[in-house]
Specification:
Shape: globular
Structural class: mainly alpha
Strand content: under 5%
Radius of gyration: 17 Å
Distance between the termini: 34 Å
Length: about 80
């Protein structure tokens, strides 16, 4: 099954996000609603899942030349 926008309807994309995130209706810790909103552009057909996930992950990638770093990277 393809998850690309061109191969899915809006309803199918909504279902894909809902199933992927689990029970987003019971956002007991308050973060699930924000997580679900992150995928609105996919549901609306504006961005592919890959793009959204890459943008999200990019916020956690650090440059090796950042202040306080000695240029070494983790070997793990």
């Amino acid at each position: 099954m393809s998850y690309l926008i061109k191969d899915t309807t809006k309803e199918e994309r909504e279902q894909i996000v809902k199933e992927s995130l689990g029970n987003i209706e019971a956002n007991c810790d308050g973060c699930m609603a924000g997580l679900a909103e992150m995928y609105d552009d996919y549901i609306e057909g504006k961005k592919e899942l890959r793009e959204i996930n890459m943008e999200f992950n990019a916020r956690y990638v650090k440059d090796d030349n950042m202040e306080g770093r000695d240029g070494r990277s983790c070997v793990m």
